[in-house]
User: Fold Glycosyltransferase from Vicingus serpentipes.
Amino acid sequence: MISVVVCTYNREVYLPKMLESIHSQICEKTDFEIVLVNNKSTDNTEEICLNFKKENPSINFNYFLEKNQGLSYARNRGIKESKGDFIVFVDDDAFLDENYIKELAVYLKKSEGDLGFGGKILPFLECELPAWMSKYLSSLMSIIDLGNEVKLFKGSKYPIGANMGVSKGVIDKIGMFNESLGRTGISMLGGEEKDFFFRIKEAGIPIYYYPKMLVHHVIPEKRLTVEFIKKQAEGIGVSEKLRTKKTGEFLKRSILELYKWGGTFALFFIYLIKGQVSKGVMLLKFRWWISRGLWG
Assistant:
């Protein structure tokens, strides 16, 4: 069985459609369970969840309230409450393709041993993309498209939190999410997914990209503002400082940051030559904000 863990915080606008995308799965309802973790929402999240459970008795839907604020706390609660052999994490503003569970089950039946995995994430845009947005910033929208073939996440690549999963045995081997990392309420800290998947890689466990494990992730207008990107970038920097100081790799990460500056300047001049100045300038600003969070 596949446990679909959905951690939510004040997303009453998107949660009904997200839950409906799970309800509409073209598969046997016994193939999966929903583990929904409410991370102390102050809106109508609880009412939405309880109504969904009442109206859909054929679905194995389990609702929990996690009082410790923070995405890592919520995900860990989801892990503890899951009964499946495989655990999938899907964001509360991501909508599953109707064949999501069926296709994922096919992939997993072919797998051997413990593994991590992540799927394709396409944007569900609520507005036009700004002129300064480039493919190098697409990960900030939690977008990932590595093509239509199964492949390994190699090197420093890893799945994105809106659509990722592991076999249950992985948790026994590497532990759960680092609760000192990750978003808390409205804070923009992150790094818990990177820390989690890097530990999986260090344990020698493969991490696969499954293209038919597809979700569409909502990109609201506020997420495409310069102010939001600034807070997100600074949060990345601070999270990297916390993560690497704990692992003793802060110096290595600082050297890598200097290397990234070199790449950023190269991209800036490429966009300058192409006449796409705003894209190049935003990359410079983005790198500066990360560095400020890392070294500040």
Observations:
- DSSP finds nine helices and nine strands in the chain.
- Residues 2-222 form a domain with the Spore Coat Polysaccharide Biosynthesis Protein SpsA; Chain A fold (CATH 3.90.550.10).
- The two ends are 45 Å apart (CA to CA).
- The longest helix spans residues 250-274.
